[in-house]
Amino acid sequence: MTRADKPTSKTGRIVILTGAGISKESGLDTFRDPGGIWDRVRIEDVATPDAFARDPDRVHDFYNTRRRNLLAGKVRPNPAHDALARLEASWAGEVLLVTQNIDNLHERAGSRDPLHMHGEILKALCTSCQDDSPWRHDMDTASPCPHCGRKGFLRVKVVWFGEMPYEMERIQAALAACDLFLSIGTSGHVYPAAGFVAEVRRAGRGHTAELNLEPSQGQSLFAERIYGLASEIVPAYVEDLLGGKT
Ligand code: BV8
């Protein structure tokens, strides 16, 4: 199988996957770095449906703390988020930004419609009427659903372990058709996102690049690997893609 080259024209299809590493320099913790979130709490206690059924107050508290931190004034998009928004605005071909992150930093940087495959911390989901709503304050077991009004049925609109991520068919179709797959700021631990690079390789047409602080679990599958701080390597990569004119 020939190795696809990076698109030189601005008409190719690009799929971008981001993870917690792109938001680290904005002040949000990653999960698996030393001192990261999973060093402080266990996935089984706060990020599974069983955890929520067993101790909803604990899970609400975990996300209330992260939501408050995200909405604190000092957390804002960094040059990596800005560069991806610039790429979307300047690229004539299709760009699909898929993020594993539940923060809103891509939107605040100007990305038009990021696909949050793991959901969004600033949304609530009602398990009674199934509607979702914007949600920017603390949530607890007595919070009423803004749509149906029922209490005790709200959860944060986030995909927990063992739950199906959002819009997988749309993502898989885009991966099979893309000319460039960029994986940014992710350790490649969590599936199905960690398997996206293999799906692009199986399709046999897209160039694959990993931009991360350090090699990820799937690093050997990428045709191109660039390591460094996202706020530095992502703008440089986008500048190169756009031919230096941004
Ligand atoms: C699914 C919640 C199937 C939101 C998250 C048993 C049952 C079911 C499934 C499984 C199972 N066992 C295993 C699985 C699969 C499981 C999985 O992959 N487990 C792993 C741990 C082995 N996956 C799932 O359960 C998924 N669902 O498979 O469903 C199914 C099928 C049919 C029907 C129903 C279901 C669901 C996965 C989503 C889980 N939710 N989070 C939240 O609280 O945030 S995942 C969690 O990890 C986060 O959401 C995060 O997005 C995700 C990935 O982490 P990363 O973003 O990569 O972050 P990480 O800290 O790991 O890495 C950061 C990287 O950045 C590092 O490499 C670092 O070097 C780099 N970095 C740091 N600083 C910088 C930097 N890079 C650049 N610049 C910097 N400055």
Note the topology.
Blueprint: E1 14-18, H1 37-40, H2 43-46, H3 49-54, H4 56-71, H5 79-90, E2 95-99, H6 105-109, E3 115-116, E4 119-126, E5 132-134, E6 154-158, H7 168-177, E7 180-184, H8 196-203, E8 207-212, E9 224-227, H9 230-241
Parallel strand pairs: 1-2, 1-7, 2-3, 7-8, 8-9
Antiparallel strand pairs: 4-5, 4-6
Helix pairs in contact: 5-9, 7-8
The structure holds ligand BV8.
User: What small molecules does the structure contain?
Assistant: ligand BV8
Order of helices and strands: EHHHHHEHEEEEHEHEEH
Contiguous helical run count: 9
Tally of strands: 9
Estimate the global geometry from the Cα principal axes. Answer: globular
Q: N- to C-terminal separation?
A: 33 Å
Q: What class would the helix/strand composition place it in?
A: alpha/beta
Give the strand order of the largest sheet, numbering strands 1, 2, ... along the chain.
3-2-1-7-8-9
Question: What's the overall average pLDDT, rounded?
Answer: 95
Helicity, as a percent range:
25-40%
- Sheet bearing the most strands, described? 6 strands, parallel
Poorly predicted runs:
none
Strand content: 15-25%
C-alpha-based Rg, rounded: 18 Å
Q: What this model shows, in words?
A:
It is built from nine helices and nine strands. Helix 5 (79-90) runs parallel beside helix 9 and helix 7 packs across helix 8. Helix content is 31%, strand content 17%. The protein is globular. By secondary structure, it is of the alpha/beta class. Strand 7 (180-184), helix 8 (196-203) and strand 8 form a beta-alpha-beta unit. Residues 19-21, 24-25, 30-33, 36, 47, 100-102, 118, 158-165, 185-187, 189-192, 212-214, 216, 229-230 line the site of ligand BV8. Ligand BV8 is lined by residues 19-21, 24-25, 30-33, 36, 47, 100-102, 118, 158-165, 185-187, 189-192, 212-214, 216, 229-230.
